[in-house]
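Each field is set out as follows.
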Amino acid sequence: MKNIRIITIIYTYLRTPLCNLWKTVSFSFILTFLLHASFPDASVFAAGHTAIVIQSQTIVAYSEAIKGFEEGCKEKGISIKAIYDMKGDVDEGKRVIKNIKNSQISPDLILAVGVLATTLAKEEFADIPVIFCMVINHERFNLEGANISGISSEASIGNQFDVLRELIGTPRNVGVVYDPMKTGKIVAEAGLVAKRLAFNFIKTEVASEGEVASALNSMIGKIDAFWIIPDGTVVTKESLETILKMSLKHRLPVFCTSSAIVKAGALVSISPDYRQTGIQAAQMAQTLLSSPTVISLGVKQPDKQKITVNTQTAGIIRVDISSLRPRPDVVLYP
């Protein structure tokens, strides 16, 4: 009503004999000005909104994502009122949630970083938009809800296999060991991607960590690369040591979604750029806060990826990485 009143006053003034502007200023210019003043762009709607950040614990990757979120929110006029740390402890997490509810802060949106923060935020805040990130294998945790949006912490399977194809070519045999109770859906999707890219996908199921070594050993001689996925049964300290020792011994390229595993000896990882993940979360926050009727954006793939290559491993297993070196998203280790 205020905007309509302003337009009416200006229109009446321009029509009076005392004003010569009606003759000298084009109506289209005036109309454009009035529309811009009355209906600002989406970034203006987001201005004045507030957010809080809840992180499961303080680790480098989480800090990078939060830094990106802070940068993105600053550009979009979204104020971050507080950052809470659950310190990797469920009881501490519950205390954090209680403190948030008892505080004077009433955020318009919550960014949850990590699985502990995300699961507790989902349980405790049903009427506030929640965006989650940095949750490994998020599909395991039933992170769905009318107010829940998120960003996957893994690069798309297609992107992972594209990088592998660039390194070793096709057709090739790719092996994976997995627990179907934990990563069956990922492996099923990967089978379709592998077929589309002309890879022969060889998969072996395990039900316990103790079966991993024998499962991989049965594949030696049949596969040209081994894929490590974020499977809690397979990815343990002991089994990773076994996988990496066997892969070096048999000159077998190992690719994964974790730069930490690359630094331990795998050949290459394809993972999200964590800072960019935070920026992407801020973009999603702007969309949610600018559109009151939109309360969830679903789970998005990360906008930007990072490829980490272990150059020492490449030399040992004799894989040519020259095609990757010029790429701006490649990190060479060490």
Residues 44-152+276-304 form a domain with the Rossmann fold fold (CATH 3.40.50.2300).
